[in-house]
């Protein structure tokens, strides 16, 4: 049995995604804020997660946005939704780290925000851009480890009309912005024949204020790189063919899991996707014996179309072999 007290924090809080030895796409939606216990520890008590990588990931986000400001896009009609997101994000940060982050409503109706970890203190009036040092979505995104995507609801459809995304897994906010929910998921194999995405959209259209939900998704990546957006493919794409057999596989290959929270916003009625990406190397994953065995089985059984879509074709076999040898 794994001694969870000796495991690194990154392992103990990792949202291991596999409930069985096989994997197929599904909506896998469940209510948010419920703690999910794992063989290593647990996760899921809050909508946003502040962990030991907080400062490093905020610094990485700042570098990406400085290089490419188009990673934050807000179409004009999404201004209220951006303010909605700011208020929700700060409230959730205060819940996650009450000793170091505080949000208080003052008598004059303004808000007072303190984030000791990020060294931010700001008073602002909801809806008044002049009371912030930058655009509201950027202000809150600069203090979150999560990516943010805002879906506008109109004509019984959802449209990705705003977002701040610096840690995308092989997709592009700049390309997807303005697309419908169904169009965004067009390239994903199997889900259209099986009706998963239309059902997911119907669920989101019915999402109620005060009842957030969550789901997980996963892929694999080479090295501890959060930014695998389409725009930066020349930087990370070639690494997929450079992983070699041996200890290099355990250190370089990472299981990447997204915890996606789905929240109906109060003022705008928009749907917010809060997307947190976690990375765990195979070497770290193998510290938990049930995870090592199950991940090897899932990867070995995964149908080829899903292998190709997830971009793991070149190293799937190496990952399976390494995990099985790591026993």
The largest sheet is: 7 strands, antiparallel
Strand order of the largest sheet: 1-10-11-12-8-9-4
Tally of strands = 12
Oligomer: single chain
Spans where pLDDT lies below 50 across 5 or more residues: none
Radius of gyration: 20 Å
- Portion of residues in beta strands equals 15-25%
The number of helices is 13
Distance between the termini: 13 Å
Structural category = alpha+beta
List the secondary-structure elements in sequence, H or E.
HEEEHEHEEEHEEHHHEHHEEHHHH
| Outline type | globular
Mean pLDDT: 93
The helix fraction, in percent, is 25-40%
Protein name: DUF3445 domain-containing protein
InterPro entries: HODM_asu-like
Organism: Conexibacter stalactiti
How would you describe this protein?
This protein has about 325 residues and is an alpha+beta fold. A hairpin with a 4-residue loop joins strand 2 (about 35) and strand 3. The mean pLDDT is about 95. The protein is globular and about 65 Å long. The strands form three sheets. It has a seven-stranded antiparallel beta sheet with strand order 1-10-11-12-8-9-4. A three-stranded antiparallel beta sheet has the order 5-6-7, covered by helices on one side. Strands 2-3 form a two-stranded antiparallel ribbon. About 30% of the residues lie in helices and about 20% in strands. It has 13 helices and twelve strands. The chain has helices spanning about 10, 55-65, 80-95, 135-140, 175, 180-185, 195-205, 235, 245-250, 280-285, 290-300, 305-310, 315-325, and strands at about 30, 35, 40-45, 70-75, 100-105, 110-115, 120-125, 145-155, 155-165, 215-220, 255-265, 270-280.
